[in-house]
Design a protein that fits this description.
Helices cover 9% and strands 42% of the residues. It is mostly beta strands.
Amino acid sequence: MTASRNAALAILWVLSAGVAVAAERPKREFFFYDAADETVPATVFDNPNYYDADIARVGDDLWVTWLEFFPGQGDHVWVARYVNHQLELKRLVSPEPGEYANPTITPASEGRLWLSYEAQMDGQWEVLLAQVNPGNSLFRGTVNVSTSPGPDIRHRTAATPDGGLWIVWQGERNGQFDVLARQVSPKGGLAEIQVLSDASTLGDWHPDVALAPDGTVYVVWDGYDGTSYDVYARSCQGGAWRDIVVIAASPAFEGRAQVAAGTDGRVWVLWEEGADNWGKTYFSRMRLKGKHYFEMSDTCGPLHRFRRLRLGLLDQAGGFAHLKAPLPMPSIEQALTRPDAAEAGKALGAFYERGRLIIDDSGRVWILYRHYYVPWLGIERITHQEAGWGVYARCLQGDGFSKLYRFQVGQGDGLQSLGATPYGNGVAVAWTTGRTDRRMTDVLRGVVVATLAAPGSGPAAVKTAPPADKPIAAAPPEPPVPPEAATVAGKRYELFFGDLHRHTDLSLCFVPSDGTIDDAYRYAIDVAGLDFLGITDHCRDLARGNALSQLWWRCRKQVSRHDLKPRFIPFFSYERSRGGEDHNVVSLRPDMLRPHTYPHPQLWKELDDDTITIPHQTITDPIEDPANPPRSLQTETWDAHDNARRPLLEIYQGCRDRSIERDAHEGLARRYLFGFIASSDHCSTSGSYAGVWAEERTRESIFRAMQARRTFGAMDKIRLIVRAGDHWMGEHFTAPCFPPIHIEAGGTAPISSIEIVIDGEVKARLPQTGRRITLTYEPEIASEGFHYLYVRLHQTDGSRAWSSPIWVESLPTSGP
C-alpha cells in the first residue's frame, strides 16, 4: 500500500474503534465495542470500487475473488492469487460488464479451484460455475448451475473428496424462496436439482453446506413458519436425503445459519438469534415516554433490536446439542444490567451477528462475526449516528474459547460480505469495508484481506447440553388467500398491498434499528405478506444522489434479486429529503436516482411517465407534544404541484402513528389531485399499507394504478372500494351534481363507523357493525364548483383506512 493509503488506514482504525474525531462526529461516543485482546492488521486494496470478496487456500497459496464496479457499465468478476499483501496473476472472469454478485472460491482436490458467482442473465439471476487453473488463473467451462425462471441467489459451496462440488442456493419456486441443492462432478457434470425445503409453503433463506469426512452432506438454512424464522438442517448420505431436523424454533428470530464439519466427524452449526415478534405489528410513534424513545422492547419493536450468536453440534441421527459454555458476548451482559433500561428492553442495542464458521487445519473451530453495542437504543432519542461494525474472531480450544481478536478494519453496512477460509493454525479473511452516506468523511472503501494465526491446536473438548427450550414443531402455514377482486365499469381489478416508504441501515437516520436490505425483503415477502415494496433510503445517504455510484448499483441489484413476480414485486425507489419537504421517488426505471439539492418542481421536469413522487409526513416536529402540535407541511410542498408527477400523498405513517388530513386538506383546497396511501417509514412494521386496485399483478400495472390514484391508505389489510357510479376513487370528472357514493369494505376486525369527508369537513358519521359492509351515500353539495369527497373507515381495534378522494366539477344546470 502507498504511504497515503497507510495514513488513511490509520484514520479508519480510529473511526472504527468508536473514538470521537472532531471533524467527523460529536465528541460523545455513541457506539461501543468489546475490548479485544489482540488487534489483527489488515490490507485494504487501492480501489474503492472493489467489493463482495471471498478467499480460499489452494495448497500453500491464498486466492481471492471479488467484484469491481465500473460506473455506467456494471461489475466485473476478478480472481487473483494473494501473496505478500499483493494480488498476483490477476485475471478477469466475467466476459463483459454486467450485474454480478457473491463471487465464491472453493478449493478442490489436487490443487484445483472452483469459482462460482451469480449473474443476471436475460432478466433472471442464475448461479454460474467455472474451473480455474491455479497455475495461471485461467478459467474454463462456465456452466449455469441453477437454470430456473426466477432469481437464484445467495449460493454456498462445499468440495467433495473427488474434486467435485455441492452447491446450495436460495431460489424462487412458485412465488417464494426455497433451498435448492445440486452436485457437480469433478469434470463439471450436473446432477438433478434437489429442493430441500419443500415441506413449507413459506420462504426459506440463507442456506449453507458442508461435507463430513464420511461423505455425508449437511445443509442448514432458516425458514419462516408463519410465526418466526427458525433454523433447519438436512443431511444426505449415499444419495438419500434424510428428514428435516429442527435446530432452533422459538418465537425469536433465528436465522443466517452456518455449518462446518471437522475431521473428527463433529458437525457444528452457528446461527443468529434476535428478538421475538420479528416484523409483527409495531407502531414506533416517535414519542418520548419518560426517557424512552420509540417504546420498543425485547419483545416488541423494529426489525433490528439485538442479536446474539448460538452454537451447537449436530449428529448423524438428527440430534442437536448446545454448548454448555456459549460464545462470550460481553455487551449482552452489560445490556442486561443497565439501570435506565426498560424492564422489558434489557437486551436492546447489543449486536453479535453475521457469523462465519471455519475449522482450521488443526481441527479448531473459529467463529468470526461483526459486533457493536449501542446502549442508548430504546432509552434515549439519538439519531443520525453510525460508526461501523467491528469484525471479531475467537476459536474453541482446550475446554473453552480463546482470547478475543479484532481486525484492524471493520465494516460499514449490512450488504457487505465477509469471506473466510482455513489457513494453517488460523484463518484468512476477506471482506468489504466502508460506507457512503451524507457525511463527507475520509473513511476507506474497498476490499480488505487479513490472516490470523493463534497458538494451540486440536479440537476443543467442549461440553454440550440439550437445548434449553425444546424446539417446537413448525406451525402448518395457512392456505393462500385468493386475491380480492372487483369489477367496475366492466373491468376487473385485483387488490394489492404494499409499502412505498421503508428504510434500511443505508439511511443514516435510525441506525441500527431499521435493519438491512435483507431484513426489509424478508419482512415484506414473508412476515407482512406484501405484494410490492419500495425501499426508500435517503438519496443523500446513497452517495449523495449519485446515480452512477457503486452504492446505488448495489441497491438496484437487490431489486432484481428479490423480484418474485408475480407473487412479490419490488420497485426502484428512494427518499429525496429537503428539510421537511420530503418526497419518496418511485420508478419503473433503475436510473432515476437524483440529489436532494434542488427543488422538487425542478426534479419533475426531469421525470418521464415512468416515475412519480410521493410527499410524506413532515419531519419538522418528529416528537408529538400537545403544547406544540405538528406544523403543516412546509411551503414548497404546496406552492407548486404536478398532478402527473405527484399523484399520491402519504396520509398515514406508522413511524409517527398519525394521519395528516389537515395537511391534505390544504393541498386539496388548492385543487391539487392526489390519492392517499399509508407507509411505514422508519422502524414501524405491519401497521401501514398502500392498497392499490390494479388490473394485473405486474409492476407496470400496479404503477399505472398508482398514477391513476386508484389507491387507499390503511393500518391493516382492510379492503376498501369507494366509487361514484362507474368512477373509481382517485378520479376527477364533471357532472351536474355529486353522484351517489357506493362504499364496499372488508375489515380485519369489526368496522365501527364510516365517515364521509367533503371539502375538508366530516359531513356524515355512519355507525356500522360486522366486518364486511356495503352501503350507498348520497352527498348534498350546497354550491356548484369544485368539490372533493373521501371516506374514512374505523375499526373496533383502532385501525383506520382512508380512501383516495373523488373530485367533481359540478356545473350550473342550464335554464329551460
